[in-house]
Amino acid sequence: MVKIVHVSGKRKTAIARATVKKGSGVVRVNKKLIDIIQPELAKLKLMEPLVVAADAVQKVNIDVSVVGGGVMGQAEAARTAIARGLVGWDSKLKKKFLEYDRTLLAGDPRRKEPKKTGGRGARKRRQKSYR
Hints:
CATH architecture: 2-Layer Sandwich
CATH topology: Ribosomal Protein S5, domain 2
Shape: elongated
Strand order of the largest sheet: 1-2-5-3-4
Order of helices and strands: EEEEHEHH
């Protein structure tokens, strides 16, 4: 029987789904190798769980598909999915990830506040003039 781990990660409106299976350490995000992802800041976010896990990554292939949100939201959702997938593969990594950064495994519950009437956004209002 082949071991395959399916997990997901979310950030704002971005949703990432990751598949972890036995392999040679290849990580792809939306069918692109992680090394060629732009911008550089998003790539560094994606690399964090791989750096923390170190040797465990060399034994698995990770495929991530991300939809929705912006560039950084997608990167953080994929980062969470990768970390959860590695924990699903090797549960010894959980303690390591939690010590490094809790948001690798636990999602960030913050969401956009809804727009209200009388203004352009959630808090901004139109100016009043009394003259």
